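Researcher: Last one for today. Full complex below.
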Amino acid sequence: MPLYNVRISQVFEEIADLLDIEEANPFRIRAYRNAARTLSEYHQELAALVAQGQPLPKLPGIGADLGTKIVEIAQTGSCALLDRLRGEVPPAVAYLLSLPGLGPKRVRTLYHELAITSPSHLQHAAEQGLVRRLPGFGPKLEQQLLQALAKHLDTQARLPRASVRPSVEKLLDYLLRVPGVRQVEVAGSYRRRRDTVGDIDILVAAAPGYDVPFAFTAHEDVDEVLAQGTTKASVRLRNGLQVDLRVVRPESFGAALLYFTGSKAHNIALRLMARERGLKINEYGVYRDGQRIAGDSESSVYALLQMPVIPPELREMRGEIEAARHGSLPTLLTWQDLRGDLHTHTAASDGQSSIKDMALAAHALGLEYLAITDHSPQQRLARGLNEERLLAQLDEIDRLQSAGGLGVTLLKGMEVDILEDGRLDLSAALLDRLDIVVAAMHDHFSLSRARQTSRLLRALDQRVHILAHPTGRLIGRRAPIAVDFALVLHRAREVGCALELDAQPLRLDLDDLHCREAKEAGVLISINSDAHSAADLRNLRYGVEQARRGWLERQDVLNSRTLAQLKAFLKRR
DNA sequence: GCCGTTTTCGGCCCGACTGTTTTCAGTCG
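Model: Here's the assembly. Have a good evening.
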């Protein structure tokens, strides 16, 4: 069974938790947590390298010792250190760390004083009033823990960013009208345009003397006030979303925006750089000898570190600081760069709009071309088009096109199913009649890595222009397929096939790291809406945002090409 | 446990809020 980086990362996280409870050296604990994060985001499976006898790549924060442990975990599935720690502290104790208000010190107290090793133990003790008597605990904390335990079944999952947008925009609108407020921005992973968000961080610049947190917690959507002070507040909305507010003076807005946008790793790197220059950065500004010398804007802070402003989408400690220092930051793709959409559905299969309405909507968005790509016959539930209906659709597109007035050029296409063995769900003769072939998997997501890889490689050997939603993931619902992605990229480059960044908010597939890997492999990305209605075309914007997180520039994206360039690309197959 | 154009030893980001420990530790981001 393959052992993924995520699993190794989990081992390191558990070691960190248990070391925390044992009161180990905090920097040693941090080293394990940093390594866990690095591993969980690394695109190449390390266990596979180990199995092939190859050396591990040099990764930040992973030195000789952790490298040895990675090899040990890859080879044995476990780790002697973890086994030893589990012998000293029952593993369920670490679980208590996830409860709000409980950190290593209090968990340790609970374990040593009351022998509490699980959430149910804790609940029992709290109900008997034993917890409040412990040092460092009190009645309020006991109550808070009971509430958290009662709710703990609905664990805090990250939500797709698009799904929280309405709530966020409503709050921003409200805050802008609060007296004293000068400026409002969403920070955090929302501003970095991550595909999912855990909570929302809102930053406000306000004149002194106004109680903005008070107004914030009074908003009609607030269900519960978790914390409230003069400069910050934290609430849970009725829809379950946690929102944190920070209020700063206008002159600190840039430094605060930088700080609360993160990522944490990016901030730490900036602060270390500042320190090397005799400066101190905090959320109020940049200081030299106690004197504030910058901070009203983000650019003022970066300028002191001799860097241009790094776009929020890149602030993930994935080489952006080195690139900024060397003047080699990418010129990121923008919405204006997109000229068309190459994967859309109509009412002929499982969409809702007519071809004409789709075209008009695309024109209204400023697009120049639009591919109509309804489903192939195997997709029965989606009313996939058989040969007869497909040919009728092709005729209809010709008629609409010659009648004119659409504002966009239509391309004749189909989203063809990739069958379990890698064949396509359409005859070669029909494939040849299409302007563009988009191929996608819609089933057999759990094939072995080897079978899934050969399935995709075989698909790529046929007349396919775009491999759609290549990993098949659905955020929060379906994991990406197991596949040798490097091999797929290599073949895609050889045969001249693009990979899709499907812009549906629940797909966003490829993800940011895969996009970057494709770019480095020289494979074009096509950012498509996969729209099932005219309104869905607007989802393209989410695709652009994710593409930016993948460091994509205009030249990396197929549908930033002019129509003539696009046609030249399509004709090569 | 990691890391190094001042370092192979001695550092490791920084501040706000809460509850309770009557002066601050613990937690969180």
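The first strand of chain A starts at residue 159 and ends at 160. Chain A has a mean pLDDT of 91.
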